[in-house]
Amino acid sequence: DLVNKNDLPGAKTRIADLEYEWDTSEARLTPMNAAKWTEIAGSIDKVLRAVRSVNPDTQTSKSALEALLAALNKQ
Q1: What is the helix (H) or strand (E) element at residue 31, kind and residue range?
Q2: What is this structure's pTM?
Q3: Residues 50 and 60 sit within 8 Å (Cβ to Cβ)
Q4: Which of 20, 27, 41, 50 is close enough to 64 for a disulfide, judged by CB 3.0 to 4.6 Å?
């Protein structure tokens, strides 16, 4: 929602929160499915790069978020 509203600073804060929670859960989640954990961590990193760039772009950020959501929803 924040990216769709062009609130990239807000999106940057929220994705950083997600990254923190994801990373602190690594020890518990990785044994369940290490490949999936790595895939989602990489997708989170792409969103972080998009929203933290010098000139963040809404469309690039939105594409990165869509890829993250696809990774999260993939069986």
Answers
A1: none
A2: 0.88
A3: yes
A4: 50
